[in-house]
From TrEMBL:
<dbReference type="GO" id="GO:0002116">
    <property type="term" value="C:semaphorin receptor complex"/>
</dbReference>
<keyword id="KW-0732">Signal</keyword>
<dbReference type="Pfam" id="PF01833">
    <property type="entry name" value="TIG"/>
</dbReference>
<dbReference type="Pfam" id="PF20170">
    <property type="entry name" value="Plexin_RBD"/>
</dbReference>
<dbReference type="InterPro" id="IPR013783">
    <property type="entry name" value="Ig-like_fold"/>
</dbReference>
<protein>
    <submittedName>
        <fullName>Plexin-C1</fullName>
    </submittedName>
</protein>
<dbReference type="InterPro" id="IPR002909">
    <property type="entry name" value="IPT_dom"/>
</dbReference>
<keyword id="KW-1133">Transmembrane helix</keyword>
<dbReference type="GO" id="GO:0030334">
    <property type="term" value="P:regulation of cell migration"/>
</dbReference>
<dbReference type="Pfam" id="PF08337">
    <property type="entry name" value="Plexin_cytopl"/>
</dbReference>
<dbReference type="GO" id="GO:0007399">
    <property type="term" value="P:nervous system development"/>
</dbReference>
<dbReference type="InterPro" id="IPR015943">
    <property type="entry name" value="WD40/YVTN_repeat-like_dom_sf"/>
</dbReference>
<dbReference type="GO" id="GO:0007162">
    <property type="term" value="P:negative regulation of cell adhesion"/>
</dbReference>
<keyword id="KW-0325">Glycoprotein</keyword>
<dbReference type="GO" id="GO:0005886">
    <property type="term" value="C:plasma membrane"/>
</dbReference>
<keyword id="KW-0472">Membrane</keyword>
<feature type="transmembrane region" description="Helical">
    <location>
        <begin position="536"/>
        <end position="558"/>
    </location>
</feature>
């Protein structure tokens, strides 16, 4: 024992004992100084001393910190969770554990409520005991005693129930059960001779216990007073007295009185003289020999700790009377254990011990290399290796090898292997446990001895044995050598001083004039015989030496010729590669210099979304359900009266600014109120107060002022940078409402022209329909630099009308030879819409196309039997694949009237993704270059970067016009909303005494350009009825970045490694920055707007769209937030000093909505 920690737990004292061999033992002592069985909480695999000072975890009092050298272990004070039923939980006799609510064994403070039970205040051997009592009148009483400590709930729900199969057991005079006792006065005081079986059922809270009792007439248990009769008496609830078995109140009811009695059976008293081995690891041992005298009647061997706790018994075999064999089981702890032998009557004799010690550990293997034929002597080094019984190699689990044990190490002969192997694990068999050695063994081929030569040295013969160099590290001690002359073997002693990896030297003593023709070499179990070399062998060796130079010269000549051919081939390949790259660069230069801005500027009617759809997409970009439900459609004016009353009450409450700001603050203080919830709250408030934009503006200003006060001491430049609060989303919505007219009347046309120009420019070059990358783009990440050669085609498209073969007038459609069939169909629809002003009545997937060839029409499909397959990847068919010429005729057929032959004509039809496809970018698989060499031409991404610049040139005028329209000022006056809000920011900066002009610039930039305009630039589908493609999105991202850089105050230094999206507009940014500064200056110098002017502006905006939204839905969604956080909102109103009337309105509103939910149809 090296360390002790004592802790008081309830009425018990718990000792945590550390030992020198690395064990942490727990021992509980009750108030009467009786101890429970010791339990091992932690056991180190190797002997490690526990240092003296152990500490209890002060945070939870459920762990002990155990100090070792260079390590501290945190060990639980109990293992309550390992006990699965109430009996095991109680039997553990652990003061820390309680059985909680009939479900689990746990710590008391982890048990919810007081429905628990635990061990009693003192040590007990049974949870429930009973006694059979008899008074002087002959009345028999059954007394039950529970040895438990229980919680209040379990105590108040205590009950006992006795039952038997024959008749009613207890009389009506039996007293009521009162914890911890139950009493049953038997109705019949005469018990049957064979005994009476009684089932006892106990209820303690929700826990139910059951025990079967056998009641006997105590005076009927008669016989010679032996220990067997005594135990039978005590077991039936009776007592033992000097006269024999009697009722419990007339004798002793403890079985300790039985230990003083003899068994009554005549056996020779056995004696133990020795146990071999008497030291084992805590895993036990399978084969142990016990020697002694009078062992013939022994049936079992009992092994137990000093305190008679948890004895283990093992059967015996091969019992000769003086020796017997048995198995030592595993133990939880280390140390001395008592051993005695058990006779048939249950008595145990003998007083010897065995020592449980740590488990073996293997730290090194020498040598760690062996030959595949096996039998090399291997030595393992480590601790407690004397407990190892067998060794197994991982390559052959069936073959177990015996060991030769020495102090702290042992050796064994390695088993054979079939081939060369590395990292073979060595397993140690200890009883029924398999341990792994930390080192591994490698198998190499057997040593190969090639020849020998002998020379005379006096009367001795010196033999030199040649061998091939290997990795076996063979030592002289592992070799046995004999020289053979006329069938007589002469031992050859290997010289340890004259050895190397490729030869050994040995000496044969006292053999004058001997000529040895053979040499026998033995290693392991393998014997090799070498014969002396003949003259023919020498001649062959000489011939080989002469041929070697000739062979070397021939190899050199052949190698030089092959090098010349390879060099010539590589030079030709490099020339072809340089030619391809020069052509690509020249073509890029030509495209850049000849790029024409021939993009169509007349795009017809602009498909603007109406106000309510525009606003709903801004308000709820990530919630389509709220987006649709908050828009008022036709037929939604008639709403139930009681629902209107509730919503009107909430609407009136929202008109109180104190309530509204308190509600927002209360919700934002909750950790469960996410950013998504904050944005939804802001948008729902915008809809609910849309008819009163003036009040909404006042609320927004109040919330913004509070936000500025919170950030004033931190970093003011970060204000309004992101949307992380309700007011920031509210500001986004407010800007969208106030700037919608300007967006539709001024900026919208320029934005749509730019979007159309991007779409047209992208369509001029190839687009990979699998990866969505394009040759003409502004984004390097979306640049299709792997594109192959292509050409432009003009197609004459005919539309089938009816089912009799009639067709429409031809429509001219521009396409590319590299277009997939689906891309051709999309270009047909786009051209149809542009020419006729309305879309074709079928979607892409609802029609198929055919092309005219030699007077007949052939179907065009993206995937068919003729598709090119590379590995497991299928190439999508293109116009080039079908060899469609320029000017060919294409017919469009509806699938309803002309069903296609193939069930899948498009990549999108493969809904289960059962195939892998590619279009213009080759898959990363090997293919035969001879089949399609042009697809293997090397492409460099940097060569095609000029495509980014040419695209930028083509779009530049559209981008420039859009930017100027955004920061332009119609009639030299800024919009009312922008001027008002910028003046508000100026006033707040003055109040906060912020003199840095950069802070104001950043506030204005964060609130308008980066908050509203960037969102519109990147998402034109918020403004127009259109679909945003990945190619369009990539270009808009680059343009939006240039827009943001125009408002930046920092000067960015760009080099050759700068991203291309920054470099594209690097020369334009300074000009844009000057225009932005002038724009901000003009707004600042403009005369301020009066409050009456701005309120009139807001009133007109509210009136324009007063019936656009479903306020009832918004109010109902807002109430869901109020209902979820009602308590927090109520407390916030108290903190803000809200009047009682306001709180009454809130509670009345809650009652109204609760009543609404409680209404049902009869």
């Amino acid at each position: 024992m090296t360390s002790v920690l004592a802790v008081r737990e309830k009425s018990w004292m718990v000792f945590f004992i550390g030992t020198s061999d690395g064990q942490l033992i727990k021992l509980a002592v009750d108030k009467n100084y009786h101890t429970t069985c010791p339990r091992v909480l932690y056991r180190a695999d190797v002997d490690r001393k526990i240092f003296p000072k152990m500490q209890l975890d002060q945070a939870d009092h459920k762990h002990v910190y155990v100090p070792f050298k260079n390590q501290i272990k945190r060990v639980p004070v109990s293992q309550c969770g390992t006990y699965l039923n109430v009996q095991d939980c109680w039997s553990a006799q652990d003061p820390y554990c309680v059985w909680c609510g009939s479900t689990s064994c746990t710590f008391e403070d982890d048990c919810q409520g007081s429905d628990w039970l635990s061990i009693a205040d003192d040590f007990q051997q049974e949870m429930v005991s009973y006694k059979v009592l008899k008074n002087s009148t002959g009345q028999v009483t059954l007394s039950i005693q529970t040895h438990l400590t229980v919680g209040e709930e379990a105590l108040s729900n205590f009950a006992c129930h006795f039952s038997t199969s024959s008749s009613e057991l207890c009389s009506r005079e039996s007293p009521r059960s009162l914890f911890p006792e139950c009493t049953c006065i038997l109705s019949n005081s005469i018990l049957p001779a064979e005994g009476l079986r009684v089932v006892l059922k106990l209820r303690l809270g929700t826990t139910h216990l059951s025990k079967e009792l056998k009641l006997s007439n105590c005076s009927d248990i008669k016989g010679e007073p032996t220990s067997v009769l005594c135990r039978q008496c005590i077991k039936t609830g009776c007592g033992w007295s000097t006269s024999g078995c009697s009722f419990a109140n007339q004798g002793v009811g403890n079985d300790s009185v039985c230990q003083k009695l003899e068994s009554g059976i005549n056996f020779s008293r056995p004696e133990i003289s020795s146990i071999t081995p008497n030291e084992v690891s805590f895993y036990g041992r399978n084969h142990v020999v016990l020697s002694g005298y009078n062992l013939s009647d022994v049936t079992r061997v009992r092994i137990q700790a000093d305190m008679d706790c948890s004895p283990q018994e093992s059967p015996v075999w091969n019992n000769t009377g003086v020796k017997l064999t048995f198995r030592i089981p595993s133990a939880d702890s280390k140390g001395l254990f008592k051993v005695c032998v058990v006779l048939p009557d249950g008595s145990c004799h003998g007083n010897t011990t065995i020592d449980y010690m740590s488990s073996p550990s293997c730290t090194n293997i020498t040598p760690s290399i062996t030959w595949i034929s096996g039998k090399r002597n291997i030595t393992l080094i480590g601790s407690h290796l004397q407990f190892v019984e067998r060794v197994v190699h991982s390559h052959d689990h069936l073959q177990e090898v015996r060991v030769n044990t020495f102090y702290k190490n042992f050796s064994y002969n390695a088993p054979a292997a079939e081939k060369e192997m590395s990292d073979i694990t060595v397993f140690l068999k200890v009883a029924n446990k398999t341990l792994t050695c930390s080192k591994t063994i490698t198998y190499y081929p057997d040593p190969e001895f090639t020849s020998f030569s002998s020379t005379m040295t006096g009367d001795d013969v010196r033999v030199t044995i040649q061998k091939k160099a290997d990795k076996l590290e063979m030592t002289p001690a592992e070799l046995l050598v004999w020289g053979v002359q006329e069938s007589i073997q002469y031992p050859c002693i290997v010289d340890a001083m004259e050895t190397s990896n490729d030869f050994f030297v040995c000496h044969i003593k006292s053999t004058p004039n001997a000529k040895f023709q053979q040499l026998m070499i033995k290693y392991g179990d393998t014997t090799v015989t070498l014969n002396a070399r003949s003259l023919l062998h020498l001649y062959l060796m000489l011939l080989i030496l002469l041929l070697i130079p000739c062979i070397i010269v021939a190899v050199v000549i052949i190698n030089r010729n092959q090098q010349k051919k390879l060099t010539s081939k590589m030079n030709q390949h490099m020339e072809d590669l340089e030619l391809d790259i020069r052509n690509d660069i020249r073509q890029g230069f030509v495209d850049l210099q000849t790029e024409k801005t021939d993009l169509m500027e007349n795009v017809g009617a602009i498909p603007f979304l109406d106000y309510k759809h525009f606003a709903s997409r801004i308000f709820f970009p990530e919630s389509e359900s709220l987006m649709t439900s908050c828009i008022k459609d036709i037929g939604q004016d008639v709403v139930k009266v009681h629902l209107d009353d509730c919503c009107q009450g909430l609407s009136r409450l929202l008109q109180d600014q104190l309530f509204l700001t308190s509600m927002v603050n209360a919700l934002e203080e909750q950790k469960s109120f996410t950013i998504k919830d904050k944005c939804a709250l802001a948008s729902l408030l915008t809809i609910a107060l849309h008819n009163n934009l003036s009040y909404l503006t006042e609320v927004m200003e109040a919330l913004l002022w509070a936000l500025m006060q919170r950030n004033s001491n931190a970093q003011p430049k970060l204000l309004l940078r992101r949307t992380e609060s309700t007011v920031e989303k509210l500001l986004t919505n407010w800007m969208s409402i106030c700037l919608y007219g300007f967006l539709r009347e001024t900026v919208g046309q320029h934005l749509f022209l730019m979007v159309s120009a991007i779409t047209q420019q992208t369509a001029k070059g190839p687009v990979d329909c699998v990866t969505e990358k394009a040759l003409y783009t502004l984004s390097e990440d979306w640049l299709l630099w792997q594109a192959q050669d292509f050409s432009s085609l003009k197609l004459k498209v005919l539309f089938a009308v009816g089912s009799e073969g009639e067709v429409s007038e031809p429509l001219e459609v521009n396409a590319l030879s590299c277009d997939s069939i689906e891309q051709v169909k999309e270009k047909i629809l786009s051209t149809f819409n542009a020419k006729f002003g309305f879309p074709y009545n079928n979607l892409v997937r609802d029609f198929h196309v055919e092309y005219e060839k030699d007077g007949s029409f052939l179907p065009l499909e993206e995937v068919d039997a003729s598709s090119v397959v590379i590995g497991e990847v299928t190439m999508l068919n293109t116009l080039k694949h079908y060899k469609v010429p320029d000017g060919t005729t294409i017919k469009v057929l509806s699938k309803k009237t002309h069903p296609p032959l193939s069930p899948q004509g498009s990549l999108k039809d493969d809904e289960n993704f059962s195939g892998k496809y590619f279009h213009l970018i080759d898959p990363d698989v090997e293919e035969d270059q001879r089949k399609n060499p042009e697809r293997k031409k090397l492409k460099l991404k940097e060569v095609h970067l000029t495509k980014l610049l040419s695209t930028k040139v083509a779009l530049h005028s559209f981008v420039e016009n859009l930017f100027k329209s955004i920061w332009g000022t119609p009639n030299c006056r800024a919009l009312h909303a922008i001027k008002y809000f910028f003046d508000f920011l100026d006033a707040q900066a003055d109040n906060m005494k912020i003199t840095d002009p950069d802070v104001l610039h950043i506030w204005k930039t964060n609130s308008l350009p980066l908050r509203f305009w960037v969102n519109i630039l990147k998402n034109p589908q918020f403004v127009f009825d259109m679909k945003k493609t990945p190619q369009l999105d990539s270009c808009l991202t680059v343009i939006a970045q240039a827009f943001m850089d125009s408002f930046s105050l920092s000067e960015t230094q760009l080099g050759k490694h700068a991203p291309t999206n920054k470099l594209l507009y690097a020369k334009d940014i300074p000009k844009f920055k000057r225009e932005v500064k002038a724009y901000y200056k003009q707004i600042r110098e403009q005369p301020p707007i009066t409050d009456s002017e701005f309120k009139e502006f807001l009133r007109e905006e509210s009136k324009k769209h007063e019936s656009e939204f479903n306020e009832t839905v918004a109010l109902r969604e807002l109430y869901k937030f109020i209902q979820r956080y009602f308590k927090e909102i109520d407390e916030k109103l108290d903190q803000n000093g809200a009047p009682a009337e306001l709180k009454e309105q809130l509670h009345h509103l809650k009652n109204s909505f609760d009543g609404l939910k409680g209404c049902t149809w009869n």
